[in-house]
Amino acid sequence: MDKVIVKNRQALHDYFIEDTYEAGIMLVGCEVKSLRKGEANLKDSYVSIKQDGAYLLNAHISPYDKGSYFNVDAKRDRKLLLNKNELIKLKSKVAEKGYTLIPLSLYFKGALVKVELALCKGKMLHDKRASLAEKQTKRDMEREIKQIKNLQ
């Protein structure tokens, strides 16, 4: 059973999701304790692939209040744990124009913290408007169906 810590809802609005991956993340003890309290934010975070691996950048994990000098910087770069084959595959995809890696969620899988990564392509403004209009018509249809069922 996976316990979701935080989701990046803005990513679903801003990007077309092509594929998803699961990765481990290297954390220190105080960060894990802070995550157990649910103190994290993935807004504006992204994944960068460098020579020695993939890194989660700009993700905010609040310092643990009882951590004293063990606490680390809240927005430090955190290494992601991926297989070599996955890393090579993602590196080649991200090199293509328009693709990026975005974290969708942080969650516990047993005692381990995992990150759900998405290979995404950015939406243009007209795409965002179309998806919002589609969502609104879907809500309206469900509302009408609910009213018809209540009348019967």
What does the model show?
By secondary structure, the protein is an alpha+beta fold. 35% of the residues lie in helices and 38% in strands. It contains four helices and nine strands; from the N terminus they run E-H-E-H-E-E-E-E-E-H-E-E-H. It has helices spanning 9-14, 29-36, 84-95, 125-151, and strands at 2-7, 15-25, 40-41, 46-50, 53-57, 60-61, 78-81, 99-109, 112-122. Strands 1-8-9-2-7-5-4 form a seven-stranded antiparallel sheet. The chain has a two-stranded antiparallel ribbon with strand order 3-6. The chain starts with a strand and ends with a helix. The mean pLDDT is 88.
Topology overview:
Elements: E1 2-7, H1 9-14, E2 15-25, H2 29-36, E3 40-41, E4 46-50, E5 53-57, E6 60-61, E7 78-81, H3 84-95, E8 99-109, E9 112-122, H4 125-151
